[in-house]
Every structure is written in structure tokens, then in C-alpha cells.
From TrEMBL:
Annotated GO CC locations: nucleus
Annotated protein name in UniProt: BED-type domain-containing protein
Compartments reported by the entry: Nucleus
SMART domains given in the database record: ZnF_BED (SM00614)
Length: 640
């Protein structure tokens, strides 16, 4: 009976004790044969006896207990615990304390997560309230349970102060490497929030011929956009970054009269955005002929029909399926997008058959055969301009390519005019286009900012200059080296025109394919440059001249074989800088500017994404900081 009532012996303590057969609540020590009470049938008193009277055996007992616990854990690791069992499991006090303990604000892991979240807000155009969203908090809780959540106020202060200050210090360190800086600038306004920003993007080439583009500032604009206020804003922004006017090589801006006046008052060398001027010429040329304008308006009307009706779009897709064609939508011409007329006409030609079949069954205007001919001719004329726009809008484009590309475009127009054409209106439009084109770009060679940069580009050198012009360029280079304070040539005459917004020009356009092959314009340019790859040599300069070393460099540079068009001129200068110690410094300066203000246009495309319905009350200063972090942090691989 007693044996049935006795509990199963599991503890290692019974190695040293036995249960009294006459009294189950007493046990006898096997070592000293003494009997001890075991009230409640616990083993606590037995352990205390072993610990105080038999310490050596107690140590053995503890070791055996540890081995037993370890074996138990290993066994449990191999079994599957259900969620219900896990929920019912009782945590020890130590486990509860450890689970509830969160990282403090100075914990390295916590700081790392703070930085990643702050950068994500800037990079993804997220509102600061995003960090208080349930979905975001659930994700962080799962990935980093010990992370102590912060609210929107913390991240607003963290991004706009700590992150910005650290990144600005890194940017300042980088731009100090540039002896001369070039800039692009533009003004952007968001109608929904009433915010205006004036951008300043810096472009420079270091001594190692590494070129960078950095967003320096987006200055808030609360006043009228007058030239006087713009000049004041520029002086403030340059002073903030410790950049003197003497170190500003040039400023690329649009043709707005207020921007021109601002540059003049700020005493800065400035140039028109080449692509912006190009688009103005194209639009005026097309508008000069009523037949072209009429076709364009008809295409815009047809495009609006499809853009305002999903049913019409689906019906067009069904027709394309019957013709075994890809689903291509119409593309709308828009005055604020570069080359949009070309892309609209190009898309219409691609879906010509589907559009004709759709027009037969629906009440929309159909395009007549003679109108299709006008579209076809316009595409032929505009194709080189579209290629030139993309070429000069590239992030790798240099200002040295402006003169070669403009000369090639003029040559294309001349070739077009020499061919017999059926339509006099197209010929007149091209003739008008050429006249305006020549007027807009007639003084490029007289501007040192263009001429010297082209001459110092080893792909072009003197190829696009007459001998007289080449000598003038050399004289200007010698004069500049001897007297560095001599300013560049005066600005070209200003043409008055209404300013256009071209913010989204670099987005991949419908109807254009990836440029895996050379474009037609680029192929022609390469052919022209390759037509006389062996340049005519020059004699050795007079060694008695005080400028003998520089003149010798000019002769050696001219006699070297030109670089292929697809190669990087900055890499060439990096390899040959020791041979051309004087010219290489000038190349760093004159090859720094881009040909267009595209970097600023891209910046404001990002600004448009920042001001969405979830954050339309964002302060202008905070928006400027978010743009600064968004575009500059990847330059340093987020290490700052």
C-alpha cells in the first residue's frame, strides 16, 4: 500500500537517500544513516542536509542535475512545439525581464535602424507619419523586437537635423576638391501647396578626373520671382557653402528674363540650357506652317478621345490583337515635355492600321493619307533633334558636345532641304526651322565656355573649328594661363521667349527603344570624326617664347590621335595628365558643366513626388532637406 502511494522517484537526490519503509514522510541518508523528516514529501530538506553535511557529494549532485537539464533541452529541441503549447509555456522571471527590455536610444543597433528609417523616408518620398502606421510597426516588431519605436516628431527632427548636418559635411568635403565649380539651376512651384524652390546643383571634376553632380541647395522662395531676389538667393546659397564667385565657372539656366537678370546682378558667368533652346526652335518651326499645326491638333484630339475612355482603349487593344500587334496606347503631345510632338507622331505611325480600323467603326476624325504623309515627313525632320535631346540630357553629357551636335543638326537640315520634296509646306517649315536654329546658335564658337571645352575634349579637338577660330582658342588658353583672372567671353545675345517647364524629359518615353546601338545622329558624327583620323601635325613651337611649355603641350595635344566618340574624355585626361600638366587643369574646369539644366529638372521631378496628397502641408524647408538627402546620400553609398 505504501509503495503505491509513494510518488515516482525522479530527482537525483535519491542517489544519496532512501525512503523510510515505516514512515513515507521520513528518509534516511545513505552516507551517515541518519533519518530526516520529509514533510510535504519535498526534497528541500534533503538537499540542505547534503549541502551542509556532505559538501563533496552535493557538488556531484549539482553536476548530475546540470547534465539532466541539458539532456532535457536537447530532447525538447527535436520536438515540434505547437502555438498553443508555446502560449501556455510559463516564462521564468529572467526570461520575462529579458523579453521586455528594449534598446535605449544610444544602442548601436537602434541608431542604425533610425538612420535606415530616416533615409527610407527621404528616398521613397514617404510622409513622416509613415513611422506611426500599423503595418510599418508590425514589420519592425517582427524584425527587431527590441527596437524602441519613435514617432513622427522624432524622425522629423532626426532627418532635418542630424542626418542633414552629417551629409552636408560630407558634401562640403567633396566640393572642396574642385578648383572650379559649374552649376545648373531652375525654379519650381507646386500649385497645391504654394511652395516655390530655387535649386542649385553643383558639377565638378576632381584632380583624378572623377566627375560628380551634387544637389547643394533648394532655397525656399516666398517672394516674387524677380531677378533681384534671384541674385540675392544665389549669393546666399554660394556663401553658405563657402564658394566665392571667382570659383564659379558657369551657371546653366533657362531663358527666363528673370534668371538672366539674376545671373547678371550676381556677377556670374551663365549659359542658356542648350536643350531648352533646341525645343523652342522646334516648336516655332512646326507652328510656322498651318498644315503641320492642323495635323498636330487632330492627333491631340484623337489622343484625348482614348485617354478619356477606358472602353475606347480596350476596343483599340482588341483591334491590335486581331492584327497581331502589341498593345500600344496613344501618346499625348504636351508643351511641357521635350520631344512630345515627335513621340506622339511616332506612336501614331506605329498604330496606324489599328487607328484606321477603329475610326471606320467609331465617330472620330480619321487621319487622311496626305496627313499621314505630313506625319511621316515631320518624323524624318525631328528624329535627329530627338536624338540630340537625349544625348545632351544624359547624366554623362559634357558641354563640349554642344558645338559638334549643333553643327551636325544644321548639316542634317541642309541635306533635307537639298532633296526633292512633294510638300512645299514641309520644306518651308524646315527652312524656317533652319533660320531660327542658325539665329539661336550662331555665336557658340565666339563663347569661350563652349569653344575651349570642345577644343579640350580629345574626341573633337579642332575638328569643328576653322583655322582662324582654332588660333583664337589657343590664344585665349595662353592668355588665361598667364592671367587667370581674365573673365570668359561675354554672354551671347539674349532672346526673349516664354519660359517652358520641361521637368520630365528623362523619363523613358513611349515608342523609344533602349539605345544599345548608335543613333543615326551619333553614327554620322562618328563618321565625320573618323574621316580624317590622322590629324595634320604642327611644327615645334619657338622654345625661346615665355609660353614655350604651354605651346608645346598644345602642339603635342593637337597631334595626338583623336579619341573614339564612345570613349570617355575624362579617362583620357586622367591617363595623360602627367604629359599635359597645364592643359589638364584647364580640362578639369572646362569639362565640368553639363550642356543642359536637366539635373535641376530631374530634381524637381522628385519634388513633385514629395508633395502628394498625404504630405501637401510639408514645409518648404523640410522638402528641400528631403531632396538633399534623397539625391546626395547614394553618392556616398550612404556612408556619412
Amino acid at each position: 500500500m505504501l509503495s503505491e502511494m509513494s510518488p515516482p522517484i525522479k530527482s537525483n537526490i535519491w542517489t544519496y537517500f532512501t525512503i523510510d519503509k515505516n514512515d513515507p514522510e521520513r528518509s534516511e541518508c545513505k552516507i551517515c544513516n541518519k533519518s530526516y523528516s520529509r514533510k510535504g514529501r519535498t526534497t528541500t530538506s534533503l538537499k540542505n542536509h547534503l549541502k551542509s553535511i556532505h559538501p563533496e557529494e552535493f557538488c556531484l549532485f549539482q553536476s548530475a542535475n546540470k547534465e539532466k537539464e541539458l539532456k532535457k533541452k536537447n530532447d525538447e529541441a527535436g520536438t515540434i512545439v505547437t502555438p498553443l503549447q508555446q502560449a501556455k509555456k510559463q516564462l521564468s522571471l529572467e526570461e520575462v525581464i529579458q523579453k521586455e527590455k528594449k534598446w535605449d536610444t544610444n544602442n548601436p543597433n537602434s541608431k542604425k535602424i533610425d538612420k535606415l528609417i530616416g533615409e527610407m523616408i527621404a528616398l521613397q518620398n514617404l510622409p513622416f507619419s509613415f513611422v506611426e502606421g500599423l503595418g510599418f510597426r508590425r514589420l519592425i516588431q517582427e524584425l527587431a523586437p527590441k527596437y524602441n519605436f519613435r514617432g513622427r516628431n522624432f524622425f522629423t527632427d532626426f532627418v532635418c537635423n542630424e542626418l542633414y548636418i552629417k551629409l552636408a559635411a560630407k558634401v562640403k568635403e567633396l566640393i572642396e576638391k574642385y578648383d572650379y565649380k559649374s552649376f545648373t539651376t531652375d525654379i519650381w512651384t507646386d500649385p497645391s501647396s504654394g511652395v516655390s524652390l530655387l535649386s542649385l546643383t553643383c558639377h565638378g571634376v576632381s584632380e583624378n578626373f572623377e566627375r560628380s553632380s551634387i544637389v547643394l541647395k533648394c532655397e525656399t522662395f516666398d517672394d516674387r520671382h524677380t531677378g533681384d531676389i534671384i541674385a540675392e538667393k544665389f549669393n546666399t546659397m554660394l556663401a553658405e557653402w563657402n564658394i566665392s564667385n571667382e570659383k564659379v565657372h558657369c551657371m546653366i539656366r533657362d531663358e527666363g528674363s528673370n534668371m538672366k537678370r539674376g545671373m547678371r546682378l550676381a556677377l556670374l558667368n551663365d549659359l542658356d540650357c542648350t536643350v531648352h533652346k533646341l525645343q523652342i526652335v522646334i516648336r516655332h518651326g512646326l507652328r510656322s506652317q498651318e498644315c503641320i499645326e492642323a495635323v498636330k491638333q487632330k492627333c491631340k484630339k484623337i489622343t484625348s478621345h482614348f485617354n478619356h475612355s477606358t472602353i475606347a482603349q480596350k476596343q483599340l487593344e482588341k483591334i491590335q490583337d486581331r492584327l497581331n500587334q502589341s498593345h500600344l496606347k496613344v501618346f499625348q503631345d504636351c508643351v511641357t515635355r521635350w520631344n512630345s510632338t515627335f513621340y506622339m507622331f511616332e506612336r501614331f505611325m506605329k498604330i496606324k492600321d489599328a487607328l484606321s480600323l477603329y475610326a471606320n467603326d467609331h465617330n472620330i476624325e480619321s487621319i487622311l493619307p496626305e496627313e499621314w504623309k505630313v506625319i511621316e515627313c515631320c518624323l524624318e525632320v525631328l528624329k535627329p533633334f530627338e536624338e540630340a535631346t537625349r544625348e545632351m540630357s544624359s547624366s554623362q553629357a559634357l558641354i563640349s558636345s554642344v558645338i559638334p551636335i549643333i553643327q551636325m543638326l544644321l548639316k542634317k537640315l541642309d541635306v533635307y532641304l537639298t532633296k526633292p520634296r512633294e510638300s512645299d509646306s514641309i520644306r518651308l517649315a524646315v527652312s524656317n526651322l533652319k533660320s531660327q536654329f542658325s539665329a539661336k546658335f550662331s555665336s557658340l564658337e565666339d563663347n569661350n565656355l563652349y569653344a575651349i571645352s570642345t577644343y579640350l575634349d580629345p574626341r573633337y579637338k579642332h575638328k569643328f573649328f576653322k583655322p582662324v577660330t582654332e588660333e583664337k582658342i589657343k590664344d585665349e588658353i595662353i592668355k588665361m594661363v598667364n592671367d587667370p583672372v581674365v573673365p570668359d567671353s561675354p554672354k551671347s545675345p539674349a532672346e526673349k521667349t516664354k519660359r517652358m517647364r520641361m521637368g520630365d524629359s528623362l523619363d523613358p518615353e513611349p515608342g523609344t527603344s533602349s539605345m544599345s546601338k548608335k543613333t543615326c545622329l551619333k553614327s554620322d558624327l562618328a563618321m565625320m570624326l573618323g574621316s580624317s583620323s590622322e590629324d595634320e601635325g604642327e611644327g615645334e613651337p619657338d622654345n625661346s617664347s615665355p609660353d614655350a611649355l604651354l605651346r608645346k603641350e598644345l602642339v603635342i595635344y593637337r597631334n595626338k590621335k583623336r579619341l573614339d566618340l564612345d570613349e570617355n574624355p575624362l579617362n583620357w585626361w586622367k591617363v595623360n595628365r602627367c604629359e599635359f600638366k597645364i592643359l589638364s587643369k584647364l580640362a578639369c574646369r572646362y569639362l565640368s558643366p553639363p550642356p543642359a539644366s536637366v539635373p535641376s529638372e530631374q530634381l524637381f521631378s522628385g519634388a513633385g513626388l514629395i508633395y502628394n496628397p498625404l504630405r501637401n502641408r510639408l514645409e518648404a524647408e523640410k522638402a528641400a532637406i528631403l531632396l538633399f538627402i534623397k539625391y546626395n546620400s547614394p553618392i556616398f553609398n550612404f556612408n556619412y
